[in-house]
Amino acid sequence: MNDVKARRKMRNVTRLSEIGEFPLIARLVRALPTEDGVTVGPGDDCAVVECDGATLLLTCDAAIEGIHFRREWAGAEAIGWKSGAAALSDIAAMGGRPRFMLITLACPPEEDVAFLEALYHGLAAVAARCGAVIVGGDTARSPSGVMVDIMIVGEAAGPRILRRTGARPGNLLAVTGRPGQSAAALIALQRGMDPGELAQAHFHPVPRILEGQWLAAREGVHAMIDLSDGLLQDAGHLAEAAWMAVDVDPDRIPISDAMRRLVEAAGEDPAAVALAGGEDYELILAVDPADFDAMQGAFQDRFEVPLTAVGNFTAEWQGARVRGAAPEKAGYDHFKG
């Protein structure tokens, strides 16, 4: 009888793999309390809080061995750098300035201390590159593998913080850099190929801190997010936050010659990789078309990084589409794959 009850109970269980990452987040945060000092709560790249007259940006990000990194592909320093870059990119997405980092490290007792020291060297290096310092953290024992969790305290770099909300019908969807290069390098690693010059994009991405501050100071930029889970999926977050849609044209995505050669050699479509590949840590923004041409030229002169319009926001439907059609895959989901 107990077995029958157990089976009935199991049939009523909602598996995380059935709903995915973002519906889970919505369920977890929907009943959370807040207070007057919270300007932006869950659902954006950073929480924004007011504390004694200062506007603070708070974010965290985890990297887990076997999920986010593999030692056979990357050294400890590169693992530390990329783990830190992922968290720092959230600050860039809101046009903020990172200040302080707290690191939680979990590892088994038999872990090589030299590996952990090199990992911290990578964390400290990317923090310094972005103007932040490590000020503390925690250590814990793990049953297997290494886990790093990074919490960052940042601050507003100017009078304006950019959020995911704010896109308007008719806005252009623009992206910095060349999306898909990290995903292309990952494809090469998975297939035993040499990623060549794209290894830098995968193992040592540089968060767009100064670029984010520059864009946040432009009134023509209405919303922004960092590119972590895929161009199409992250653009969809901007559309969803504004209760509208975004239509992406893959022919307009700036794909480097090196990426095209590598992806085609692996038998994949470069445009599809650029649309769905994540971990580029570029910036995606909604921008007024009247301001874009002048902004594009000034941005590229200042940073020597492409800024490219790759789509449009519309109120005709909701969600993210590719040339008006629903995509087969939008990007990465931690629990659906």
Descriptive report:
It is a single chain. The two termini are 37 Å apart. The longest helix has 18 residues, at 76-93. The mean pLDDT is 93. The radius of gyration is 20 Å and the shape is globular. It has two domains: 54-156, 60s Ribosomal Protein L30, Chain: A, CATH 3.30.1330.10; 172-322, PurM-like C-terminal domain (Phosphoribosyl-aminoimidazole Synthetase, Chain A, domain 2). Helix 4 packs parallel to helix 5 (113-129). It is 36% helix and 24% strand. It has 337 residues and is α+β, with helices and mostly antiparallel strands. The strands form two sheets. Strands 1-2-3-6-4-5 form a six-stranded mixed beta sheet, covered by helices on one side. Strands 8-10-7-11-9-12 form a six-stranded mixed beta sheet, with helices on both faces.
Short description:
The protein has twelve helices and twelve strands. It has 337 residues and is α+β, with helices and mostly antiparallel strands.
Could you list some keywords that capture this structure?
2 domains; 337 residues; alpha+beta; six-stranded mixed sheet; Phosphoribosyl-aminoimidazole Synthetase, Chain A, domain 2; 12 helices; 60s Ribosomal Protein L30, Chain: A; single chain
Biggest sheet, spatial arrangement of strands: 1-2-3-6-4-5
* Top-tier CATH class of the largest domain: Alpha Beta
The biggest sheet, with number of strands, parallel, antiparallel or mixed sense and barrel status, is: 6 strands, mixed
Helix content: 25-40%
Strand content: 15-25%
CATH architecture term of the largest domain? Alpha-Beta Complex
For the residues shown, what is the average pLDDT?
93
Give the total of domains.
2
Which regions are unreliable across 5 or more consecutive residues at pLDDT < 50?
A: none
Structural class: alpha+beta
Radius of gyration from the alpha-carbon trace, in angstroms: 20 Å
The termini sit apart by 37 Å
What's the CATH topology label of the largest domain?
Phosphoribosyl-aminoimidazole Synthetase, Chain A, domain 2
What's the order of the H and E elements? HHHEEEHEHEEEHHHEHEHHEHEE
CATH superfamily of the largest domain: PurM-like C-terminal domain
Contiguous helical run count? 12
